[in-house]
Specification:
This protein is an alpha/beta fold. It folds into two domains: about 260 residues, 3-Layer(aba) Sandwich (Aspartate Aminotransferase, domain 2), CATH 3.40.640.10; about 130 residues, Aspartate Aminotransferase, domain 1, CATH 3.90.1150.10. It is built from 15 helices and twelve strands. The chain is globular. The N and C termini lie far apart (about 55 Å). About 5% of the residues have low confidence. The structure holds pyridoxal-5'-phosphate. The site of pyridoxal-5'-phosphate has 15 residues, from helix 4 and helix 5.
Length: about 425
Amino acid sequence: MMAEEGLETVLARAGLGGGAVGHTGRTEAEPGRAASPAPEPLSEPIFPASVYRFADMTRVDEVWDGLREGFVYRRLGHPNQAVLEEVLARLEGAEEALACSSGMGALYSAVIAHLRSGDHIVAQAGLYGGTQTLLTGELSRLGITCSFAPAATGEAFEEALRALEAEGRRPRAMLVETLANPSLAVAELPALSALAARRGLLFIVDNTFATPLGCRPLKWGPALVVHSATKFLNGHSDVTAGVVAGPKELVGPLRRLATAVGLTIAPFDAWLLLRGLRTLHLRFERQQRSALEVASWLEGRRGVKRVLYPGLPSHPSHGLALRVLDGFGAVLSFELEGGEEAVRAFVARLKLISLAPSLGETATTVTYPARTSHRSLSLEEREAAGAYPGLVRLSVGTEDTDDILEDLDQALG
Ligand SMILES: *Cc1c(COP(=O)(O)O)cnc(C)c1O
């Protein structure tokens, strides 16, 4: 079966072929009726149904008791979600995956399913803005508090945990991002994973920037791996979705919560995401290759103060990246001399590259973290996170590398 196939084959086949993955949605012939030849579409059909009918009462019992595979009601699961989750679990090397309606929905489910009032999360400073807001706003209202370690290293987290315990607080979970934004600092996953295991803490890793092709955090131990599938996994700027993958015993409570509150993915989004996933390996390979080329090209260029890309030997995390990552990713940041004014002029001159506050698209995009993801922070907090006034973040797309370089060249002047 697919477990023995290469990741690229899994992606290319994503959900298709020989009924190898999940539910095909085909119904058996009913007694006394000849089976009509089942259509065999090469692409996955979409099942928008909100509810499924049952042949008889026995079938109701069988499906409810888990004796027979089947679907009941869309919020509880549907064929497009089932196929997608199989593929996502395989990608992360996880026992189980849950597909949610957004990355934030995935993160929210991960926390709410496992923590309760009085519990405390230790997170790395400088998280994705939405996550920061979730932790310090919504979750703190529910009595789940959070403190921040200055870096995603074993040492920084150990110190933060000790400080908490000295205050008599109850740490319950640790949260990091594989690649931080916009510094592209790499999380010290082997040490952090071991620390979480020693302390019996839930370890949550936001793997959005790295993708499962750039890093598979589960190889260092149990964790909940979260993605905003809105980014690289879908890749085509037309889906908002999220994923949580991990051991069954950790994902199970999440599925109960997400179905109870209605945070699961819709059929059309699941279908689009599966289609996007089929080319993830091709897109990501191309994007990574271009990103390294662009980063090397930018480094040392007049007007560019520094370039942050873990694939460059000059990046503070380069050594760690070689140990932890399977690829350096396709996002890089660079700082322009001349601060915000220089950034404005640069952005105004771009032709091919769009100013758009996201990443992982087939199109190359730039964002200005100081005014988007890090807008709500104070100047000091922004600088601590690396969102300097002259800093631009670039998500390298699938275009011809020379076209990207040409646009950057003319825009930098
Ligand atoms: C975009 C993003 C999220 C949030 O995901 P949505 O799909 O927008 O809800 C979370 N974490 C990171 C690192 C992101 O880039």
